[in-house]
Amino acid sequence: MASKVIHAIYNDDDILMNAVKKVRAERYHIEEVYTPFPVHGLDKVMGLAPTRIAITSFLYGLVGLSVATLMMNFIMIEDWPQNIGGKPSFSYIANMPSFVPIMFELTVFFAAHLMVITFYMRSKLWPFKKAENPDPRTTDDHFLMAIDAGHHDVEKLSKFLHTTGAIEISLIDNDEDH
Amino acid sequence: MYTLPSKLKLFAIVFMVIGAIGIVSGFLTAPKTTAEVKEMMAAHGDGHGSDASHEAPHHETATTHEAAPSEGHQDAHSSEEAHLEHTLHQMQNRPWSALYIACFFFFMIALGALAFYAIQFAAQAGWSQVLFRVMEGITAYLVPGGIIMFVLLALSGFHINHLFVWADPEVVAHDKLLQGKASWLNGTWFLVRAAIFLGGWMLYRHFAVKFSRNSDDETDNRWFKKSFKISAGFLVFFIYTESMMSWDWIMSFDPHWFSTLFGWYVLAGMMVCAITTIALITIFLKSKGYLEVVNDSHIHDLAKFMFGFSIFWTYLWFSQFMLIWYANIPEEVTYFITRIEQYKLPFFGMLAMNFLFPVLLLMNSDYKRVNWFVVLTGIVILAGHYVDIFVMVMPATVGSSWYIGIPEISSIFFFFGLFIYVVFTALTKAPIVMKNNPFLKESKQYHY
């Protein structure tokens, strides 16, 4: 079903922030906001849920720590406990100080890389992905707010958006799903 | 203006009195002769576990010698006497060490707060101005704490007590290594250095506070610029003197041992304690309604510093430990062998208190804003760093005769009471939030 979306373009992040507040106060649904740079507090005024990526990172770190511990315990203690320079390979804890640098690095490695990959997957970013950019100016100096026109009166909505400081307003037929 | 509540004053005085009584009783109950040591050891069933294991080989040699002919018997007797003498010295050192550790612990909080204060000026931080008066209050302890510290150092450096082995001329006469270090480690030069360090720190503290108070009555940035300059100068002075202070006041307890990153290690512990104390006093004052301008974000920043410096401390602790453990050079590794054999629980326990606890509790951004979380972690961190100083000092002075009993706890009580009294009295001397600083407005509106 083809839905209609209104694209309102702003040229200042402060005006955009105020516009977002007003639009939300009028209970219109904001589909998306496109900005050329991070606007501090935009997620808060849009009412977006906080990210959980730090929690995933912590869990990945624990995985990395486990991998390091299990790997070195198997290799250095269980599989072939050689005497290497007199280091005590009787138990993992007896030789632990020499394993700590690797435990630390693998924790960081897993936490960092898996978190980045999670970020790419969750935000659907990969090479050769088709850019979802409604207006190329939003990567330079313009801000675009996409509002679901839905069952609203388009005339009234456009007038309202003008009062929030939009410099351009256009009605878009949104028939492709991305 | 903050007024010292009479309840808090009473609280501090009670702690000081109880502590003082305990300290005196600690000195009175310390044994004076080897006969008393023998009695005490018999009464306590050879003390605690680590004590017994340490003494077992000595007793064995003593009994085997006793079975031998008469000339061997005398040997046995003298070796037992030597052992008792050794234990006597350890037990006599205990109340002194307990006093020294508590004194240094609270002194280093004030010193760390002073360094942190100077860093805030030199870095032109934009969040901490509303906390400056709290920091100034904490650094007020630098003067009385430093004077007590100096007296203790003088008593030890001139061998009134046996805390520093290098201060005993008889020991030095038979010790080539100590003779080699005597040009640095001798009573006079030791005290001259201590006077220079303490004098420099107190001088900066005096002028930093004076400039800060002066700026309250001005509208221009004259005093801020002066504070900035002396803070930058102080930080240079501080990093050299702090390093030497740690060799003198802590590392020289084990004068046969040395470690190059020791100064940093002491500094890291000092900074954690100072920032934790700043956070605790800030939360306390805010809860009493004196620091309305302080918001969650300020607490969050302090908690981040607590978290970060805890990890930094652990990094240095591990770097020092692991390098020595790995290379296992006999003259270096004895330091850790005595600690692991005789101080297993405090030595590894402090790692849990100073690392695991803050890392797990303060990792979450939301928890850093919850006051009781910060207070809980802060108390554990402070206790952990007391144990850290304990494990740095005690093995060299009392060895296996350690215990956390009346002398240790009383010393903590006494200096805690003094610290509270001095800090909160100092807080009444000036408005609790400064009036004029170019970053003040930013700090008041600080939001993270």
Automatic annotation (TrEMBL), chain A:
Report TM segments: 53-76, 96-120
What are the alphabetically sorted keywords of the record?
A: Membrane, Transmembrane, Transmembrane helix
Give a yes or no for keyword Membrane in this entry. Answer: yes
Family annotation (InterPro entries): ActD (IPR021776)
Protein name, entry field: Quinol:cytochrome c oxidoreductase membrane protein
UniProtKB/TrEMBL annotation, chain B:
Q: Which UniProt keywords apply?
A: Membrane, Transmembrane, Transmembrane helix
Q: Where is the composition biased (Basic and acidic residues)?
A: 43-63, 72-84
Q: Can the keyword Transmembrane helix be found in this entry's annotation?
A: yes
- Note the InterPro entries from the entry: MFS_trans_sf
> Is Membrane among the key words of this record?
yes
Q: Where is this region: Disordered?
A: 43-84
Q: Where are the transmembrane segments?
A: 12-30, 98-119, 140-164, 184-204, 230-250, 262-285, 305-325, 345-363, 370-396, 402-427
Q: Which PANTHER family match?
A: PTHR43044, QUINOL:CYTOCHROME C OXIDOREDUCTASE QUINONE-BINDING SUBUNIT 2
Listed name of the protein: Quinol:cytochrome c oxidoreductase quinone-binding subunit 2
